[in-house]
Amino acid sequence: MYKDKSVAVVVPVYNEERLIARVIETMPACVDRIIMVDDNSTDNSVGIISSKKEGGFQRIELIRHDKNQGVGGAIVSGYRRALEERMDIAVVMAGDAQMNPDDLPSLLDPIVDDEADYVKGNRLFSGEAWKIIPHHRYLGNSLLSLLTKIASGYWHVADSQSGYTAINQKALGGIDLDRVYRRYGMPNDMLIRLNIENFRVKDVPVKPVYNIGEKSGIRLGTVIPAILGLLLRGFLRRMIQKYVIRNFHPLVLFYLLGIMTMPLGLIFGIYLLFKRMIFGPVVATSALFAAFLFITGLQSLFFAMWMDMEDNRIFEKR
Fold first, then answer.
1. Does the pLDDT of residue 153 top 50, yes or no?
2. Are 126 and 45 in contact (CB under 8 A)?
3. Is 70 exceeded by the pLDDT of residue 12?
4. What is the pTM of this model?
């Protein structure tokens, strides 16, 4: 228990035999259930977990998947078990020990104090992050965080790829777990779904942990395009659900205007540039029209983002 709230930690496990024992051994005493979800590992992860449970770690509950479902699928299985056991708070910690257990109270306090329904660890708050996190991952994370702000509407939330999260029972029961994305884009998808249902989300600083023997299973060439597609679909779903079906908002019109006119202006401008280079001077009014379309579209997009930011400010509580 943590301040009279029951806490379950969901640990997705896939071939983590090198570090899973460390995750179990360093789990804070306030955690009531350690829900280990083995996602069809091919190494000795299950054997290590079982030996730890038999050796005295009675808080462990092991769930095994017959087929690999992805990290998101493993987390969803753990979430369902936490709901079944009526845990007040469900936390996600990775099976590769990259989440500092000392940071757990920082994630739990905003929920216990009723300041948030979902709390995300943010590794980028600290100036140490640039030194600790591999630079290509840091830059990729920053770009995806920016795109996730646009897609999710939680403009105050950064480090979208951090999986160190805590969620209360109300929010966990308020989203459709059957539809949650099953792979590495799961944290991004969760933010979009939480925003549609108007749940409060808060960022808290956590310490980045790297170079402890972990081995990343992420393949950027595959993961990034998948997450970009996920964000686009999620953005469109949020716009339709939140700003058309549930309560019409004019920001949808500004997004539509921007999405239509900015690409047209850009394409027309490139066409005029090539025409100028190959055939000579172009009509000045054509160039002005291309600039007008592009600038109008860009301004419309910025205005729509500003309106979205203002509409979602009520979910930001610091």
1. yes
2. no
3. yes
4. 0.89
